[in-house]
Design goal:
heterodimer; A: 289 residues; mainly beta; Cyclophilin; 2 domains; 7-stranded mixed barrel; 6-stranded antiparallel β-sheet; B: 205 residues; alpha+beta; 4-stranded antiparallel β-sheet; 4-stranded mixed β-sheet; 13 strands; elongated; PxpB (chain B); CT_C_D (chain B); Kinase A inhibitor (chain B)
């Protein structure tokens, strides 16, 4: 059977197609997008023998279920969750063969937020500006999965990895984010800058692919008035008028008009993508490298 | 010119006017094209240009602080004409604020040469400058939940055209059928930073 495709049986709360995103178009207002936990997406691709740029599925909290039309190798990683094939438990974090027509079920995350599913050959939807990623801010790329959606699969590039499993970081019980101050820390009082570094924050339930919102002490402005719109980077800690820091994730707007008090190290963002609402957050100022 | 470090591999280069930001943007594009500047993103904005994914931020911070940026000759830039019907629901209110009739307000807008200062908000949404200060208008206090694609709008010093239907708080003065964004086209955005724009009235205006 040559019909390489997946039928979405249960789309879950929010399951999107993701890859390494579409950097290079910020000047046209195009967010970079891409997997929020890039190491997890790269690992599941490696487990099924895909190149790192192959498109995967990113689920949010409650998993999803698929029925492949032809036999395919799958690996599930990122947030730990139960995996079943044809109703029988199967391995998480390791390559698993799903026979044609069998049901692949990925259950709710037992820890963390986002699980990743890689399929041999990758999800082969039409790329937009070089990427198959769903961008929720601007609506580029394929729509989030819906029950009944059929996703084409590419031809497998190589054999699955010959491993039983791969170590993956545990979702954070507490999130420690290293930040370099600026570029607009001078828009805040000295006390606000101290608060950011010393006080306790928590991940807000209002977080999404655009930003990780936090709850905690409001940061007080030293300057009032409006900042003219300026370019925004991944990991920017933007402070809206309510004073609660928002950390920009992959679907962040490319320009914005609220001051950025600090920028989170890129290496700390995958953990931010796996932090459940309520997770304690600490911002640790570090020197620029 | 001031270069503010942003994280580990980005710089926000601050200048004092929109024209300077556009000139700096053009100069940075030139440096990238000739291979001197290695950077992933060059993002112009109102008073800044962001260099993101920069190979050597410390060196560029030093160089840009002392750099002299040649002004870009306006005529050297591409001119795009956008057909527009001045039929927006806020045209009358904008005209009243300007102390003009709706027809006169449309003539002021169509008689202005705009420049795309920067993009943002949505793919293909350009912030167009060119309207004199006395024609600047505030945004709506409460944004509309849905603004149709092609709506020509004003806010603060800017004019913009909504590339697709979305929520929006700008004052809507007209409509264009021009396709602002088409990802199968190169470039996908009709309006890119630095492009000159004129609105050409069609129909009864």
């Amino acid at each position: 059977m040559t019909d390489r495709a997946l039928v979405v049986v249960r789309a879950g709360a929010l399951t999107t197609v993701q890859d390494r995103g579409r950097p290079g178009y910020a000047h046209l207002g195009v967010p970079r997008s891409g997997a929020l936990d890039p190491p997890a997406a790269a690992l599941v691709n490696r487990l099924v023998g895909n190149p790192p740029e192959a498109a995967v599925l990113e689920t949010t909290l409650d998993g999803c279920a698929m029925r492949p039309r032809s036999t395919v190798t799958v690996a599930v990683g990122g947030a730990p969750c139960p995996v079943a094939v044809g109703g029988r438990p199967a391995a998480w974090g390791a390559p698993v063969v799903v026979p044609a027509g069998e049901l692949l079920e990925v259950g709710a995350a037992t820890a963390g937020v986002r699980s990743y599913l890689a399929f041999g050959g990758g999800i082969a939807v039409e790329p937009v500006l070089g990427s198959r990623a769903t961008d929720l801010l601007s609506g580029l790329g394929p729509a989030p999965l819906a029950d009944g959606t059929v996703l084409p699969l590419g031809a497998p590039a190589g054999p699955p990895a010959r491993v039983d499993g791969a170590p993956q970081p545990a979702p954070p019980a507490a999130l420690v984010l290293r930040v370099t101050p600026g570029p607009r820390d001078d828009w805040f009082t000295a006390r606000a800058v101290r608060d950011l570094a010393t006080r306790a924050y928590r991940v807000s339930a209002a977080s999404n692919r655009i930003g990780l919102r936090t709850e905690g002490p409001a940061l007080e402005r030293a300057r009032t008035g409006e900042l003219p719109s300026e370019g925004m980077v991944l990991g920017a800690v933007q402070v809206p008028p309510d004073g609660r820091p928002v950390i920009f994730l992959a679907d962040h707007p490319t320009t914005g008009g609220y001051p950025v008090v600090a920028v989170v190290r890129a290496a700390d963002l995958p953990a931010a993508a796996q932090a459940l609402p309520g997770t304690p957050v600490r911002f640790v100022p570090v020197r620029r490298r | 010119m001031r270069a503010l470090p942003v994280g580990d591999d980005a710089l926000l280069v601050e200048v004092t006017s929109g024209e300077e930001a556009q000139a700096l943007h053009a100069e940075l594009l030139r440096l990238r094209a000739e291979g001197t500047l290695r950077v992933r993103e060059i993002v112009p904005a109102a008073r800044t240009v962001l260099l993101d994914g920069l190979a050597d931020p410390a060196r560029w911070a030093a160089e840009l602080t002392t750099a002299r940026v040649p002004a870009v000759p306006a005529r050297a830039r591409e001119l795009i004409e956008l057909p527009v019907r001045y039929d927006g629901p806020d045209l009358a209110a904008v005209a009243e604020r300007w102390g003009l009739t709706a027809r006169e307000a449309a003539r002021v807008h169509a008689g202005t040469e705009f420049t795309v200062a920067f993009c943002g908000f949505a793919p293909g949404f350009g912030y167009l400058t060119g309207l004199p200060d006395r024609y600047h208008v505030p945004r709506h206090a409460t944004p509309r939940t849905s603004v149709p694609a092609g709506a020509v709008a004003l806010a603060g010093p800017y004019t913009g055209v909504y590339p697709r239907s979305s929520p929006g708080g700008w004052q809507l003065i007209g409509t264009t059928d021009a396709v602002l964004w088409d990802h199968t086209r190169v470039p996908a955005a009709l309006l890119t930073p630095g492009t000159r724009v004129r609105f050409v009235p069609v129909g009864d205006a």
